[in-house]
Structure formats: C-alpha cells, structure tokens
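thread from #wetlab-drylab

HS: before we spend reagent money on co-crystallization trials with pyridoxal-5'-phosphate, can we at least see a predicted complex? here's what I'd submit
DV: go for it
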Amino acid sequence: MGFDFDKVINRREELVDSLKWDCKENELPMWVADMDFETVPQVQETIRKRAAHGTYGYAIEPDGWADSYVKWWRDHHNFNMNPRDLIFATGAIPAISSMVRSLTNVAENVLIMTPVYNIFYYSILNNGRKVLESKMEYVDGEYQVDFLDLEKKMSNPQTSLMILCNPHNPIGHIWDEDTLTKIAELAYDNDVVVISDELHCELVDPGKEYVPFARVSDKARSNSITCMAPSKTFNLAGIQSAAVYVENRKLHQRVWRGLNTDEVAEGNAFAYEVAMAAFEYGWDWLTEVRDYIYKNKQIVTDYLSKYLPQLHLISEDATYLLWVDISRVSDSARDLARFIRKGTGLWVSAGEVYGGNGEHFLRINIATTSENVMDGMDRLKRGIEMYEAQK
Ligand SMILES: Cc1ncc(COP(=O)(O)O)c(C=O)c1O
C-alpha cells in the first residue's frame, strides 16, 4: 500500500492545538520531535471507533496490551520479553522522572552522556538530583563514548543511576553491541542502574537495526529498565501511551511502586488500544515512513553539500532529527537559531539545551513533507547568508 506522506496537513488548525505549529503564519517549525504525517490508518480507525462510543470513563489494561509489545520486539528486534515484566506508563518522561525519584536519593548523581535529549535534565534537576554529564568525544565530525570518563563517573559512590538514550537523540547514533556491552559491564560493576530510553528505536534508516540494551548481556538485562513506546514511531505522542520493561524482580517492584505512587501507571480511554493497533498493523506504514524520512535526509545532505558546505551534517543512521555542526558560522547556536527564525521564519532547535558541545549545533526535524524540507533548506541558506553578511 502506498501511504501519502506528501499530503499537506494543516496542523495549525485550532482543533489540533499543536505544540509544534504554535507559531506565526509565515514560520516553518522544524523543531520538536513529532511528525507531520497521518498515522497508520487502522490506528485512526481505532480512535474513531472508540471516540464514537460517547462514554470516556476510566480504562483498565486490556488483555493483549503487554503481548503486543512482546510480539513486536520479538519479531523485529530479536528481543524476548516476559509480558509480566512490562508496566504501562503515561509517557517515557513521566516514567523517567518517577524512576529518578524511586531509584535514587536527593543530591545523588544521575549520569547522562551529552549532548542528549534536553528533558532528561529536567527529570533529574526538578527532583533535586544532580546531573553528571559525561561529554561524548567529538573527533573528526563524529561522536564516541569517552569510556575513561564514563568509568570515572560511574565509580563515584554518589552516582546511582544512568539514563542512556538508545538510539541517541540528538546525534542520531545507533549504539552498537560492543558499546552497549561495555556500558552494561561498567554499570553493573559500579552498582549503577541503567534506564535505556528506546523511544526512537524504530526510526532508523532502511536496512539498519538498533540493538536493545537489555539484549546485550545478562548484566544488562538484570540491571536495566527499558522505556518503549509507539509514540515517536507512529506519531502518537499526544496519546500518552508508553511502557517500561524491568526484568529484575526487586527493581521491577521498586519501579512499579514508584509509577503507581506518582499516578503515571494508568492509561486514558485511548492509550492501550491505540498502542495495540499500532503494533498490530503498523509495520508497512513504518517501512514506508522510514523510506520517506531517508529520502528527506538525502535532500538535506545534497543541499548542504551544494549550497552550505560550511555546515557539517553528522551522518548517522537513526531518528528524523538532524544534528548540524554550525561551528564554522557561529560560536552560539542559540544566537544563530534566533537570527534565522527572525529573518526567515525557520524554527529549529539550538543545541545548547542538549548540553555537551551543543552550542555548536542546530537540531532540525525532517519528519515533514519533502516540500517543507526544501522550503526549510532554502530558509536555512538565506538565514546563514544574512548571518554571515552581518558578522
Ligand atoms: C529520547 C526521548 N525520550 C522521551 C521523549 C518523550 O517521551 P514521552 O512523550 O513518552 O514522555 C522524547 C521526545 O522527544 C525523546 O526524544
């Protein structure tokens, strides 16, 4: 079946209340991580059917909800889970914030490899814990884990938790088995629990595969929590439906207790059925959306090499978020992003919020029509030219 990802959908409509499109008429938002595509038709049908019922009282977890995750990960990622080890959560971030509270004490360190998804900082800081950054090494335009630094920070007795982003937002990297095995080993040996946030795991280039952290070794499996969801994959973030997978019984109990105490373990009237429909019917749609996003990536790659060679696109295999090195144009991504938005209406994310060496980067969301991507590139070119002219 051919899905029409070129279709122009008006997300500015009041009915939609879109966070991404809450901007001026002449602006083009390519920032927050959601897509401008309609989701899987059977998911839309599930929502329509449920909405038509007219009653929206409390929901319970239906039979088959956990099995739908188990089947998807077994079939597509060679990862075997026991359904009893999955817990519903209203989102990855509500779950992560809850786990920061239930698995660490106030003033302890939570380790992250930076630059990384900015909301991790809030989950840590808002709960009175300390952010411990292990900055990734950036050599010849590529990132690597700084294992010496990671080990030093894990061995600090104040460090009790690490939040790993797998694949990694914003750099778009798929961590390989060796890297994950080493991280798992270090964490286990230093009594640091690992939360692996795998929300972007399906959004990989055609032919590429991510590696589930808990799959790489017994140490990883017994000492980790995996966050999973259909939200990024199928453009369902607003439905607030996610899951955490915890195999270790003691850890499972602590996480379950925390999620319940924090009241983030119960889904709304749409949350369970929507996830089940996405995992049951979403494969063909996903295959095509990957091809489409990859095509958009090629458009950007070609455009930058032809018209903006002073920018360096980090060439990576996952996510629809492109991480662009702007250090030859500006030493402040924040300045540059503001300037571009004001001058051209293109709204992209400034890298400072992700920590690490983020001040040298812009993050650009290309999960939109190719027409918008071209428009975004033309605006970027104009913005950079104007910025360079006034320097
Ligand atoms: C790595 C990562 N984790 C979590 C989230 C948000 O998850 P949720 O909406 O389920 O809280 C995002 C959204 O961009 C993300 O990029």
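DV: The CA atoms of residues 74 and 285 lie 19 Å apart.
HS: ok that's useful, forwarding to the group
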